[in-house]
């Protein structure tokens, strides 16, 4: 405070304190009377002092700052809310919360503005949240998302092929599984239903994990099943684990996207469709809304199924400006180039262990119990300074899948039937 008022003189009101206390005391008893008197006296002293003035002005100023920040926050919709456009009817800004649930974007084949909407969401989220607070993963078989390849918020390169998509899905599934385990551990003792609970209990804020998938329809029919199975798993519990799917598709609720996935979307944006019947049946709009949608339909206009409003998605005016806008964004948020993780088989060291220590036995009845196999493997790891050896079960899985005949009911170890592998010798001391 630059200017402090000179402390006012003690006023007569000061004597009212003890006096009042005595009166109350007479009424109740002397001890209470003395206490109340002292409290009122102290309060009166503080109120007339310099300190009181400073405290009061600071409190007032603090409250004001807090209130105006709060107002600004609600104006922009809060930290986890991204502005995507304007409400077509009220002309107010339209926000989407990104920490509440999965998002589906639908629209007919030709330019409905699906990708533009997804990209606006991604850019908005990156502008509001740091790369520590939101982790993006992207799959786009048409390479549209590639502009975000260098963006720090993306953990891996954008997948453009089926193989790459598999790596991305694997990475997201791993996070999902880890969190699932983590939360279960907590709920053993305490309730931990979602990432907010988790933060309240542990004090640790887990990042939002968002998988952006632009048009899975680009996948060949045969390859869809495992991918959709995984998406189904992700959407069921993902939202409570802070793992979200943002998916755009031309054909919601057909063979391309089963209802069990889209039923989990918290927000669904319906862009223009070619037929009224698609809007009524596929997108479950009633006839009036569907008719209005057909009338209003143009690129960038979406019906928001949750709030039952029409959103005009932000658009800079031309394709060139849009490209410039994304380039500016990419430059601003660019980080180091990312690399695909090395494929599992190259990452692991089983192969060389296998070549060095294992040879085919002369007779097929040759048998090695898995405890023995594992001991040989671990010795080899120690000698070769392997930092993270496989666990026993992992090693056995590898052997079973790729190399050996695994048996569970023959052979002996320490005089007992044991699990192990058949037909191989382990040359290791
Ligand atoms: N919000 C919008 N406002 C105006 N035009 C848009 C908007 N979004 C998309 N468009 C137009 O549609 C074209 C295709 O958009 P895009 O998002 O790639 O469509 P989709 O992914 O649905 O095929 C854009 O290049 C642009 O010309
Ligand atoms: Mg597109």
Q: What is the residue-averaged pLDDT?
A: 82
Radius of gyration over all CA atoms, rounded: 33 Å
Which small molecules are bound? adenosine-5'-diphosphate, magnesium ion
How many distinct helices?
15
CATH topology of the largest domain: Rossmann fold
- CATH-scheme architecture of the largest domain: 3-Layer(aba) Sandwich
Return the structural class.
alpha/beta
Main sheet summary: 9 strands, mixed
Helix content: 40-55%
- Beta percentage is 15-25%
Poorly predicted runs are: 1-10
Any chance you could write out the topology, listing elements then pairs?
Blueprint lengths: L12 H15 L2 H18 L2 H27 L4 E7 L5 E5 L4 E5 L7 H15 L5 E7 L21 H28 L5 H8 L5 E7 L6 H21 L1 E7 L9 H4 L2 E6 L5 H7 L4 H10 L4 E4 L4 E5 L5 H14 L11 H4 L2 H8 E3 L6 E3 H14 L8 H12 L1 E3 L4 E2 L2 E2 L2 E3 L1 E3 L3
Parallel strand pairs: 3-6, 3-7, 4-5, 5-6
Antiparallel strand pairs: 1-2, 1-9, 7-8, 8-9, 10-16, 11-15, 12-15, 13-14
Bound molecules: adenosine-5'-diphosphate and magnesium ion.
